[in-house]
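note to self: the first set is below, dont mix up w the second
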Amino acid sequence: VAKQNGVALTGVAKISGQTVSLYENTYSMHFDGTDESLMCGQACNFGFDDAFSVSFWYQVTAQLAYDTFVSKTMWQGNYPLGGGVGWSVYYNNYFNFTMEGSNWAREATISNGFWAAVWTANGVAVPGDWHHMVISYNGDGLSKNNMKMYIDSYDVSTPYSDRVDGPGVLTNDAEFVIGDMDWQAGPDPPTSRSRNGNIDEVAIFDYELSQSDINLIYNGTPPSGGGAPSPAIWNDGTGVPGNLNTLSTPPVNWWRMGDDWTSGTTITDQIGDKDGTMTNMDGEDSGVKAEVPS
C-alpha cells in the first residue's frame, strides 16, 4: 500500500504526482563510500525475542572495508569496554550479518562464506551487476544458528562466530540507516563505514521470511551457479524487484529509493511512518540515480 497526500492507495506507488504500478522500478540511490546515508529513524528496533527480516538490492562495485548496506547499531566504545548494540549488514572480505548485545559479551555473526558475493565463471565479481540480499533472524535467541543470509534466492548462510556470555540487549537509540552506521553514541567512534555504490528497494519485515517469500521478492530465475562459491556462475540470474504487496504479509517499512522522489532530501516510507532523510546528499548530488536491477 502506497501513500499519496496521506491517503492509502492499494496497488499503486507515487512518482512525480502520478500513480504507477508497483512493479515499475526506475530509480535507486547511490552512496559515495565516504559520508552519505539515508537516516530512517527508529525503524527495525527489534529485540532478541523478535523475529525480523530485511530485504534489499545492491549493485556490485569496488567493495570497501566495512562497506555497510543497512544497520541499526549504537556504538559504545572500543574493545574491551565498549562494543556495539544492535545489528548490521556489511562487507569486509565477506558479506557479514552481525548482531551485538553490548560490552563485546553477546555477539553472533554469519557470512556468505566466500570471498565475494557474486562470481563469473572465472571467479571475478562483475561491477555493475545487481543482486538481491535478505537477512533474517528467527527470534529464538542470539546465535549464529538462528540467523540467515540469502543472495539471489540462495541460502548462503555460513555460521561464523558466537559470543553469548553475559547480559545484553538488541534494542537501541540509533537510527536505522541505509548506506552507513549511526555512530551517535559512545567514545572513539569508528570512521565512516559508508556504502560505496547503489542500493534499491529496501524493506523491513517483522517476521522471518520463508524461502517461498524470498523467491517471490527475487522475482526471477536464480543464477545457474546454484549458490556455490567461486568459480560458480553468479551473474546470469534474471531477478528484478517484485511487488512486495503480493506477499501474504507485506513489510512494515519499504523505501523504494527514489521512485517516489521529486526533490528535497526525503525518501518516503511507502508503508510505515519512517521516512528517510538524505545525509550529505542534498542539492545536485541527490543520490537518486536512474540505475536499477534489470
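second set (the one i keep forgetting abt)
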Amino acid sequence: AALTSWTGIAGAEERKPTLREAAAGQFLIGTAIRSSQLRDPAAVALILKEFNCLTAEYEFMPAVLQPKPGKFNFKGADRIVAFGQEHGLPVTGHMLCWNQMTPPWMFENAEHQPLSREKALENLNSHIRTVVQHFKGKVSSWDVVNEAISDKRGEYLRDTPALRAIGEDYVQKAFEFARASDPEVPLFYNDYNVEDPVKLPKVIRLLRSLQQAGVRLDGVGIQGHWRLHQPDGQTAPQGKCDRTGRGRVVVGRKRSLQGRHPRQHPGGASRALCGIVRGLPATPGPHTFCDFLGA
C-alpha cells in the first residue's frame, strides 16, 4: 500500500510517511516556491523531505520574466530550475499566457487600447519563443495558457487584453508558438473549477476547438482548491472525466484540501488525500481521475 507507517528500533515513536512517500508510485507531490525560499535552509529541508516536483509561484510569469519589451530577467526562474536539476525534482513551467501577471504593453498601447492583432501576436510569439527556448530541456512541461475560460454564465472566454487584441484564437496561437519553440516538451491548458457545471461545457468547447484546429494538446492541468465537502464526491470526478478529448491526459496540477471546521470533521483533509492516493492505479507516474474511474 502507498500509505504506510513503520517503526524503527524498539520503543521508538512510530514514523509516519512524508507526503512524497505516501504517494510513491501513484503521482508526484509538488509545491509552489519562490527563489528567495531557496536561501532558507529550513525551507529547503522541508521541500526535499515532502515533495518531488516543483512549480515556480511567480517567477515564470510574463510580468516577471519580461516586464519591459525585450528586457528579460531569468535570474529567479533559473535559480529554481537549477535547484530542481540538482535534486532531481522536475519543474513545471507555469505559465506563458494569462490575463494576470502579464505586462500591459504585451496587448495594449499607452492609452490602454488594444494593439493591432498583428502587433499583439508578434509580442506573444516573441515572449513565448524566447522563454520556451531558454528553458528547453530544463522543464518537464508548460502551462501554455492559464484560466482563459470565463466563470460568468453566457460568457465563453474571459474578457482579457489578449482576447480584445487578438480574438478567440489567441489560445490556439499561444499553443502553436510554444510547439514551434520546443516540439518535444508537453504542453498543457490550465484552469480551475473545471468541475463546475457552468464552466465544464466551456472548457470542453475550448479543448475540442484546439483539437479541430490541429493543435497538439498534451494535457489539461486542473487546479483543485477543494474543501472537505465541496465539491462533492460525484461532481469532482465527473468534471474531470467528461470528454476532454481522446488521448489527452488530465492532471490535478494543483490541489489544496481545506476544512473550515476541523473539530467537526477530524482528520477529514487527511482522509480525503488518502482516498485520492488509494484510488489511483498502482503504477508509477502521474495519473488522472479518469484513470481510476475507468473513463
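remember for set 2: Residues 241 and 294 are 9 Å apart (CA to CA).
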